[in-house]
Specification:
mainly alpha; 3 helices; 60% helix
């Protein structure tokens, strides 16, 4: 696993939906470039959390003009794709898998 991965930090600061979308997109693109399947899955799941935060922010904010449901639909597709990547029965599965 990537040892340089940042530590999870909880903060009270409110971010915009765009902030979460940019973070999720960055994580997804980083994941796309990884070769290790486990690391790829971890980064995809981090992206999923940011996409969910984006949708949640869209739901809660009267100022945001976008509908959150397409965001959630795309997030479900990413979750399904991620689940296919992480096959415990794959011939090359490691004990960590």
């Amino acid at each position: 696993m990537d040892l340089l991965r940042s530590k999870l930090v909880f903060e009270d600061r409110v971010h915009s939906a765009d902030h979460f979308l940019q973070e999720a997109t960055k994580l997804k693109h980083h994941s796309d470039a990884l070769l290790d399947r486990f690391d790829t899955v971890v980064y995809y799941l981090d992206a999923v959390v940011s996409f969910i935060k984006c949708g949640n922010t869209l739901e809660k904010s009267a100022q945001e003009s976008k509908c959150p449901f397409p965001m959630y639909a795309e997030t479900v597709k990413l979750i399904k794709y991620t689940m296919k990547l992480k096959s415990y029965m794959a011939p090359d599965a490691t004990p960590a898998d």
